[in-house]
Amino acid sequence: MRDCIMVVGSGMMGSGIGAMSALAGNRTILVDVDESHVRSGMEKAMACIDLRVGNGLNTAEEAEEAKKRMETSIDMLKAAASARMVIEAVVEQLEVKQALFAKLDEVLPVEVPICSNTSGLRITDISGTCKKPERTVTTHFWLPAHLVPLVEVVMGEKTERVVAEGVRDELKKWKKSPVLVQRDLPGQLANRVFQAIIRESVAIVASGLASAEDVDTAISCGMAMRFPEWGPLKHLDAIGLNLGLAVQEAVLPDICADRQANEYLRHMVEDGNLGAKTGKGFYDWSKLSLEEDMAKRDKFIIEAVKITSELNRSV
């Protein structure tokens, strides 16, 4: 009987994905290469569930039932025998993912979707050796997967639309906000927008217009405060497209339009200043705590999820 969601790869992303699957009422199997990996993955998944309960995103009863639904396996083919949907969350290497998809494609019935959590690779390329690529699709969960609602559901060149729509509808049941991306392009959807923001942010610092701290503050305390319920296209409609057009004509000629990474960023990397992991990047991390900042980030996400959920219920 095909009654489970199989998550292949039980690391940071796979464990969070598995937790959300189980909380949605699915029997869920975390699969990895050995017992130590799946044991660690299960511990992470349980921590994800506990965090959601501790912050009021799920009830204790929901958590108790979810934990009962979670299983582990180091035998992927055996686990696949009961899978109705598979999500791959292994290392971000094309050859590894291609080999995994080819193996799954051989053993799974055509009606079982095979999904990849890839953040940068094309599902078209990942499924390139599959005999039935029409049932393959990207499901890019955003980190942290157990908190951020967004999942980008990306159609490959041969993906059947009905498959992608079915996966999207499944993820809606997981308290996710999936979006359907209809072309398989680098960066998918959200990363294309995010990279445009990063490009201009780096250019501003490089030009001396503002410091890294002030750029981040301007974004975090300005536009980002509106984004959970007020996206940029809704903003354009609200202010009037004629005003939006006038602003673009005035501003766009002067903003960064580089087709490659900024030299300022390139020089930082060449100098060995890689960010938090080396102690220095745009910030001096010897004076900061990455763990504390990540905790603050997660707390903000949690509160935003609560507020947006309440707003959606009141509509």
From TrEMBL:
The lineage of its organism: Bacteria, Bacillati, Bacillota, Clostridia, Lachnospirales. Gene3D superfamilies: N-(1-d-carboxylethyl)-l-norvaline Dehydrogenase, domain 2 (1.10.1040.10), NAD(P)-binding Rossmann-like Domain (3.40.50.720). Residues 189-285 form the 3-hydroxyacyl-CoA dehydrogenase C-terminal domain. One of its GO terms (biological process) is fatty acid beta-oxidation. SUPFAM superfamilies: 6-phosphogluconate dehydrogenase C-terminal domain-like, NAD(P)-binding Rossmann-fold domains. Keywords: Oxidoreductase. The record marks 140 as: Important for catalytic activity. Coiled coil: none annotated. The keyword Secreted does not apply. This is 3-hydroxyacyl-CoA dehydrogenase NAD-binding domain-containing protein.
